[in-house]
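User: Can you model how thiamine diphosphate sits in this protein?
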Amino acid sequence: MTRKITYAQAINEAMVQAMEMDKSVICYGLGVDDPKGVFGTTLGLKEKFGSERVFDMPTSENAMTGVAIGASMNGIRPVMTHQRLDFFLLAMDQLVNNAAKWHYMFGGQTSVPITIRLLLGRGWGQGPTHSQNLQAWFAHIPGLKVVMPTTAADAKGLLLSSIFDNNPVIFIEHRWLHNLEGEVPEGDYRVPIGKAQKLRTGDDITIVSLSYMTIEALHAIEILGRNGISCDLIDLRSVNPIDWEMIYGSVRKTKKLLALDTAAESFSVASEVVARVSMECFNDLKCAPKRIALPDCPTPTSPALTKVFDKGAVDIVNMAGKMTGKNIDTGEISKHKTYPHDVPGDWFKGPF
Amino acid sequence: MKEFISKNKTVAIELLYKMKNIRLVEETIARRYSEWKMRCPTHLCTGQESVAVAVGTALRKDDFVISTHRAHGHYLGKGGSLKRMIAEIYGKSTGCSKGKGGSMHLIDKSVNFMGSTAIVGGTIPVGVGLGLSITLKKTDQISCVFFGDGSIEEGVFYESVNFAVLKKLPVLFICENNFYSVYSPLKVRQPEGRKIYEMVAAMGCPSQCGNGNDVLEVYQKVNSVLEGIRQGNGPFFFEFDTYRWREHCGHNFDNDLGYRTQEEYLSWKEKDPVCAWETILLEAGVISTKDIEEMENKINKEIANAFDFAEKSPFPDTKEVCTEIYSE
Ligand SMILES: Cc1ncc(C[n+]2csc(CCOP(=O)(O)OP(=O)(O)O)c2C)c(N)n1
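Assistant: Here's the modeled complex, given as structure tokens:
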């Protein structure tokens, strides 16, 4: 049975189910039991499971990560939340020097089954310290798993898989997805870490995408379709490990690759996709692979600058058009947009 | 107090002027925020004006200040440009950070306001570093670091205080304790009964606490240690209790959320620092209601000018998005 719920509700549901299934699952982080409940994702958990398992935290990101590591070594499964990925940067030491390599460093004798929820996003003047998309950093560190669900169903399925995985998992949510609705299976629904999902099937070009950029890609693909270009759209879901087989299979069919990312272009996940495809499918490619990501600079705050900084459907249509030798009118995309570029939708009233 | 006021009439009036200025600026931002032209997260300091003003007035122009996400008051208190601050919040090229920073990232080097950023605790070691530079350059400046009670929970706070004490750096730590970190009250974050300033004293950094809503108390307490810091006595830490009236982030009130009671909020509103100082000055006879009216008119005119300047200023050219990543 499935029903329509939002991405945020799907995360909340996964949390409830995980905590019901396993008493060792705990949930903490700044504001998890406050009236807003981390954009609604942790609402009601404290009431259901008590303040021993669900609790607020001092602003101590590094310590709370180390605490999670220690607790997990004695059978606890901590799920930590951070309202912005940027805030979690204070915890890089515990994450990289301890969590990521504990299992390896001690010859596989202990492991660190923790889940770290990081929220990232764009828009509304979030600016240089509130909008960084550093997924490639995490994916670069051996020993960490990194997932970035796009759909509500995947949010639920991947969170359950992350919580019950025996390794540290970085679970990255884009703020602009939280209000997205989708069909989500009831019950103990899991999506395996490391498996991508093909969201659209086509013959002309392979688009490899992740997180919120997949939504932009879906819009773009509609327009491309009307212009006679059909696309394979692969939503990565996991950026470490990556489902290379699905990507190679698709590129061997379409012979063209466009990789998307929500992050700065250089050294991005998209870069890795382009690199591996170039290495593995070189002879299949009919044109040079391309990528669309953010310019290599910090996020500006001014709405005048974010307008050109952020990338979306128009950029994808233009690039795919170029790669297939077609000039496509993108006017209809902006025609349908009834709200400013720096908010996720009409409903957004700022300022968070 | 009477003695102070009669001996320091200009300072007394200056303190009121600056507090009113910050109050009216923040209230104008709040009123106009829903026009949605200020498109960035904005943390107002309404209710917390006195610490910013007292410290900003006690410091010299060449002293350094560094601050956090809630920096409007600190910026203006130190003498930062109102026009350029409002323009920054509007994301305009005339803003103090050229539209790249927004409300959370203010700077005005002309008055040695060296920046404010939004990562809790992030600027504390930077302020200590400015202190180190002062020692190396052998001047008698002070580096003042503003932060909230939430910052005390970050490891970097302890590392920074330790270093400042170790090296006897000329650093003035100002903790504004408004009892909340977003919607989390102090009691879920720090052990009950602990005084932040006492804990810091145990680290070897002399400290005091005070009523952060009493502008004169803050001014005098801070003033009484500045000379010592300038002479090389090392850092000093203040914990001033105060209260934020509006929501953590944004222009509304958020008492309806239930994380704090209406009664608590009202009891702090009664301790309005601006009103209190105004009453004292009126009673002391150093200022008349007519003076106050004139003062408010002047401030309001300046605020109107600043908003006008911001609205009329151009947005940065889109080419600027990738400039200034590196220094030439
Ligand atoms: C490292 C980090 N963690 C969490 C946050 C989210 N955050 C923004 S403001 C804030 C409250 C900080 O409280 P306090 O230092 O007391 O300052 P106040 O907002 O009360 O002025 C928090 C937790 C952040 N900005 N940075």
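A couple of observations from the model: The first helix of chain A runs from residue 7 to 21. Residues A 30, 59, 61, 83, 87, 90; B 69-70, 118-120, 147-151, 178, 180-182, 248 surround thiamine diphosphate (CB under 6 Å).
User: Helpful, thanks.
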